[in-house]
Each structure stands twice: as C-alpha cells, then as structure tokens.
Specification:
Blueprint: H1 3-23, E1 36-39, H2 44-49, H3 51-60, E2 65-68, H4 76-86, E3 89-95, H5 97-102, H6 104-114, E4 118-121, H7 137-156, E5 160-165, E6 172-173, E7 176-177, H8 178-185, E8 191-196, H9 197-202, H10 207-214, E9 218-223, E10 225-226, E11 244-245, H11 254-264, E12 268-271, H12 278-289
Parallel strand pairs: 1-2, 1-12, 2-3, 3-4, 4-5, 5-8, 8-9, 9-12
Antiparallel strand pairs: 6-7, 10-11
C-alpha cells in the first residue's frame, strides 16, 4: 500500500487549495459548492489501496459530495458508514446496464441505504469490446428497453434517473445518430441526461451547442477538459490518458459552457478525471470551479 502516495495527495490538495484561496479571497465561484461532486472512479486506484485515507483526502480538499460507481466491494450500509466517517455524501451513482435491466429493486435498496438522489447508466459497450470499438443500434435499443422497464419503479422510489453520454452515441444511425435514436426512445419525464463534456468533445461535437439543443433534458454535467490538440471525431468512448486536462487548462471555453449550463438548468456538476495524475488534476479543477484559481473567476 502506497501510504506515501496518499499522504502526498492530501498535502498536494491542501497546499493548492490553500494557496489559491489566499490569492483570490472573496472571489465569486463559477459553480456553487453545493452543486459540485466528484466521481469516485477518478480515484479508483487509490480507493482500492486505502479507501479511508483517500476519502479523507478528498474531503480535506473541500469536496463534500461524491458520485459513486459502486460500493467499493462493501455492503451498502458499510459504504455509507465509510462516507460518513470521511464527512462525504453520495449524491448519486452509476449502475451497469445489466443491473438496470435485472436488479432494479437492488438499485433502489442500495440507493435508500446510501442516500443516492439519482442513478443512471454510464457504459453501454459490451464486455470484451476493444478500445477502438463503439456501439450500434442493438446496444441503444437494449438501453431504451431497460430504462422503460426500470423507470416507473425508480421514480416511485423517489429517485431521479439519468443516462450518461459517453461519446459513442454520436455515431451515425441512418439519417441521424445513435443519440437521436436514444432520445426518441427515452421518456423525458423520467430520464435526465448527464452530459460528459470530454466525451462530447471527443466525438467532435460542440458541448455548448449541444446544451442549447437539448435544453432542460441535461440536468447533470461530467466536468472534464481536453488537452488542446487532442484528436476528435471519434465514437469509441475511449481516449489516451494524456488527453485529459484540468479544468481551465484545456480546450473548453468554460465561460461559455457554464453560462449555457445555467440556462439549461443543470443541477449537478460532477468532476471526473481519467489522467495518470487524477488527484492533482481534481485539485486544480476544483479550485477553478470554486473561483480560487487564476482564470477561474467568472
């Protein structure tokens, strides 16, 4: 177990945020803290080594809410206790398409115990699919069927339901795209969208234009930046780790995007990072969103 790595992460987060706060005291944040969460998958390697230290470091950085991707191999009550111990709340979670199709009651039971407010699927590629492989109409139709079946029970349980865009939905489908096919099949009265800014860009789509097109259907953002010069027009949901950049240091015009998000009525801004140095990137991104980093005040 790399305790030195965990310790370095804790110190790095604290130093970065402390310095930024002192430098720009009183700045108006681009996004209110109450609307910010961190997707725990960003730190899945550290969580596997030392979940207690990793979650405490995340809380020390100023984060209060997280988005889960599973319960870290724990029973729901134990996972909730782990979050409570760190002073964190899980605002929502990603679930597998198989779970949504076959285990709706288990999703509801876990959400009730942990306290999730929303649940949704983030990955449709079948097991064994390669990094250069996308999806097709069959995966979209299977997702539509699963959502249609699960929505009534999830909504009755008081949960908000969402679908996470992963970029492969922009591949062609006849005269339109797989996303057109998906949106036509999902009930907008039950299923919100979680727009992942990075994967939208990776597909070669303008995220601001997409927000304006989809309007109120987008209630959550995965807030991720892309390094300038990274390749686009790809519909695989995969990218080299070096393509991920901290917020404000990539190719996204966050002033325009956040303004469009506010107009669309986005409720949650979920930070995620899939780079080789996620803790450092998350610290910089969080400071930017909180208006504590130069260039982050809007």
């Amino acid at each position: 177990m790399r305790r030195h790595g965990i310790y370095s992460m804790m110190v790095g987060l604290a130093l970065l945020l402390g310095t930024s706060t002192a430098a720009i005291a009183g700045a108006s944040p681009p996004v209110p803290d109450a609307k910010i969460a961190v997707q725990l998958y960003s730190l899945h390697k550290d969580l596997a080594r030392d979940p207690v230290a990793t979650l405490k470091a995340l809380r020390a950085s100023g984060v209060t809410q997280v988005e889960a991707f599973n319960t870290l191999g724990l029973e729901p009550a134990a996972f909730k206790a782990l979050l409570d111990q760190a002073g964190l709340t899980a605002s929502g979670t990603h679930v597998g398409i198989k779970e949504l199709r076959d285990n709706v009651q288990d999703i509801i039971n876990t959400a009730t115990i942990v306290g999730y407010r929303y649940v949704g699927v983030a990955w449709l590629k079948p097991p064994g699919a390669g990094p250069n492989q996308g999806i097709g109409p069959a995966e979209i139709d299977a997702a539509i069927a699963a959502y249609r079946s699960a929505c009534p029970a999830l909504k009755a349980a008081g949960l908000r339901v969402m679908y996470h865009l992963h970029g492969y939905e922009f591949a062609a489908d006849g005269a339109g795209t797989l996303l057109d096919r998906l949106l036509a099949g999902l009930d907008p009265g039950c299923v919100d969208l979680q727009m992942d800014v990075f994967w939208v860009l990776k597909a070669g789509v303008d995220p601001v234009a997409l927000l304006e097109k989809l309007g109120g259907r987008v209630k959550l953002l995965h807030v991720k930046d892309m390094r300038p010069g990274a390749s686009t027009g790809e519909f695989t949901g995969s990218a080299p780790p070096g393509d991920f950049a901290p917020i404000g240091q990539g190719s996204v015009d966050w002033t325009l995007l956040l303004a469009a998000a506010r107009r669309a009525g986005v409720d949650w801004y979920v930070l995620e990072d899939e780079s080789p140095t996620p803790a450092a990137h998350l610290a910089a991104s969080l400071a930017w969103l909180q208006g504590k980093q130069p260039g982050g005040v809007r």
